Amino acid sequence: MTETAPQRRKPADPQGAPSPDLKIIETRVFRGPNVWSYEPAIHLVVDLGSLEDWPSDTIDGFTERLLADLPRLDQHHCSRGRRGGFIERLQEGTWLGHIAEHVALQLQQEAGHDMRRGKTRQVKGIPGRYNIIYAYADEAVGLAAGELAVRFVNHLVQPDPDFDFTTELERFIKQAERTAFGPSTQAIVDEATSRDIPWIRLNKASLVQLGQGVHAKRIRATMTSETGSIAVDVASDKDLTTRLLASAGLPVPRSDSVRTVEDAVSVANKIGYPVVCKPLDGNHGRGVCLNLADADAVREAFPIAQDQSRRGWVIVENFVTGRDYRCLIINGRMEAIAERVPAHVVGDGVHTVAELVEITNADPRRGVGHEKILTRITVNAAARELVRSQGFELDDVPPEDVMVKLTLTGNMSTGGISIDRTYEAHPENVEIAEEAARMIGLDIAGIDFICPDITQPVRETGGAICEVNAAPGFRMHTNPTIGEPQYIAKPVVDMLFPPGATSRIPIVAVTGTNGKTTTSRMISHVFKGMGRKVGMTSTDGVVIDERLVIRSDASGPKSARMVLQNPRVDFAVFEVARGGILREGLGYERNDVAVVLNIQPDHLGLRGVDTLEQLADVKAVLVEAVPRTGFAVLNADDPLVRKMRRKCSGQVVWFSMAEAGSEVREYIEGHCRRGGRAVVLERSELGDMIIMKHGRRSMQLAWTHLLPATFGGRAMMNVQNVMAAAAAAFAAGAPLHDIRQGLRTFSTSYYLSPGRLNEIEVDGRHVIVDYCHNAPAMRMLGDFVDRIGESLGASSELGRPSRIGVIATAGDRRDDDMRELGEVAAQHFDQLIVREDTRLRGRKRGESAELIIEGVRAAIANGARCRSVELVLEELDAVRHALGRSNRGDLVVLCVDQHQSVLAELESVSHLAQAGARSGDEGGDPDFVRPDEEGDQEQQ
């Protein structure tokens, strides 16, 4: 994982011609803060192959060809910090991986995504291999940009006859347009981002969540979670809409709904010509036929309108003449008005109508559908007929300044343009539009006015409300063809999140090598006791308000996002594992409190993390994700964790078990004198007291021996976890008495902390179930075993109890780590049984267990406590074997992976033993059959 920035070196004199060897070895998408960037990023691992010896200045014409196809690369600053800096690097000579990074960024800019952040770093120890990291706005577009960039660079090295960059670029841009938000959704998302409101895209279309947890709101285009479904149904029924507006005394056209052609003609004759035929529940102006002058025109228009009606009903209404205005009403107030001009061309005396359409469509602001701020004009049969009705054919040249209409409706979706009229409308017309939105009940409504002039009262000049639209488009207001843009996303976000409203829930993230799950559970328990609806992720699953909703290893970013989407959650506690950070980054933008427990040798040799320092850099991502208003809770006793204070933008809260007067404690005292916070351990003859410090104040939290999770103060690893949890809760705003009450009521029972130091009596045997799976954790567990073993020995009437352990580790650990686990375990147990996880993680069956046994035997040879070691691969078989080897009064420690099935087995054995006792069985161990010398085992 160690990288170095590629430096310019004098290349070896390359021979022959360069080959297009650049290829992508690995692709990863970071969806949150990660080891490379604070922002989401694409990570490509590329191999240059022979091109490692061919920097840009050694390839004839490379820079010229590159700039000919992507001229805007001359705007890139690169490391020079000024425009043209990247061009200088190209001319001096830079490596093609670095060039691919800039091309990927520029391709996204060509698609309208203003991405500028990127870096390229050489992978240490592997010549020609580089890490390319660059920003993205849309995941699919970012990935496609990287793939196209590599192909394009290879094409520049050696032209590929099957590769046409212009075609590929057009295909790429169209893909970006298909996946991009529409103008309305993008405007709202941009406004939310500017206010620091987090958002999550919930599907590939326009469904977006704004805010987190209990504060979350949803939008789909301009429909919000506050939009009433009844209001939408009413607005989609144009006949009902007209009748409701008429009942309120608002100006509407005379109309009726029909299902047959003859009924349509009858209604038209009744209300008088000209009339309009339109679908009862249509949208975007589809199927609307205007200015129908007689019965024949109605008969011709009726099937067109009915074809766009989902229920088959057609509205026939009198044709209101005038200009077409769209009034946008948000939360009961008029926020924008646009005059909509139907798709048209203006003659210049030179070009034909068809040529003028092509010239108009060449405007870069025009695209297909809603992908751009204007829509291309489509010449269909209706357009040809309309042009003909104005005295022209498509091949005719209209006189200069003569307007030729191509549609009758002013919808933007059919190629129309918009003129901003927001500040010109007469107050009476504004009042009418606002009243119409209230009558229908829409929080966001588009009121379509037809009137001669919006600046004059419509009741005096004539005109009417022709339609009320749910989910109206914003682009005619945000990007008018003529006039000033209106920032209408602001009132939408104001409506969803009024000034002062909260959009985020507090997030506490916990990481470290050992103790993450227990600490996360302790923090959750404290806030649960305060009445909070806590969403927690851990290696056991996702818990929402004390309910386990998903049972799996949920310590990654996907699980975190799941919690943030849950509408019941008002407080989040995330266990964050190394693997998730390396795979996808964090699943959220920032955490209010980051807790780092320890950095110890585990998971080394995976994903490029080979040293403790590199592991610390990965874990430090949580600290880097703390805002200025947040806190980092750090273990002052761990030197690598202590160094993370430099990466924290907020405040640091220390926790330490160091003795008073030690160097670490002196440092903490100085920190507190400057107003800082800390949690420390004060030792005395009466016991160990946890003290919380804030500035010069010292507050007693609890005696460690009175906290159930510490087993009377003997489980020092849980003493440390308690201190970390207390510090995190204090930083997150919990009062002292609530922290104390939460920790006093938290125990390591299976119901509160499944699989973590659970204690159970099984037919006179003292059984501990834990997840210990690495050497550092085994040292702490061994210390606890020593302490509890001495206590059991002092109180036992059966003599010195035996200590029997079942141990294992994950198959993706290093060989030496596995041996070390065996060596450490041998120091604390009399008998060891080595099992193996179901998931082998790339190892052969039995391979991991044999390595642990090697470590145990080496320790035995050096005088360790252990007397024997056995191999029983299956977990439940190993548990039964351990119980069979034990006697009443013995201590049996089971380090297991599937704690649910193990606890069920122990409960079963315990019930059998109780049933046997009630039957009068005495002496021996009736519930166990000891394995024979070959290791065959069987349970009665």
TrEMBL record:
Map out region (Disordered) in residue numbers.
Answer: 1-21, 913-940
SUPFAM superfamilies associated with the record: Glutathione synthetase ATP-binding domain-like, MurD-like peptide ligases, catalytic domain, MurD-like peptide ligases, peptide-binding domain
Q: Does the keyword Coiled coil apply?
A: no
Listed under subunit, the entry gives:
Homodimer.
The scientific name of the source species is Kribbella lupini
The molecule here is called Cyanophycin synthetase
What the record says about family reads: In the C-terminal section; belongs to the MurCDEF family.
| Catalyzed reactions per annotation | [L-4-(L-arginin-2-N-yl)aspartate](n)-L-aspartate + L-arginine + ATP = [L-4-(L-arginin-2-N-yl)aspartate](n+1) + ADP + phosphate + H(+); [L-4-(L-arginin-2-N-yl)aspartate](n) + L-aspartate + ATP = [L-4-(L-arginin-2-N-yl)aspartate](n)-L-aspartate + ADP + phosphate + H(+)
Describe the task this protein carries out. Catalyzes the ATP-dependent polymerization of arginine and aspartate to multi-L-arginyl-poly-L-aspartic acid (cyanophycin; a water-insoluble reserve polymer).
Q: Which residues form the ATP-grasp domain?
A: 242-497
Record-linked InterPro entries:
ATP-grasp, CPAse_ATP-bd, Cya_phycin_syn, Cyanophycin_syn_N, Mur-like_cat_sf, Mur_ligase_C, Mur_ligase_C_dom_sf, Mur_ligase_cen
Q: What is its EC number?
A: 6.3.2.29, 6.3.2.30
Keyword tags: ATP-binding, Ligase, Nucleotide-binding
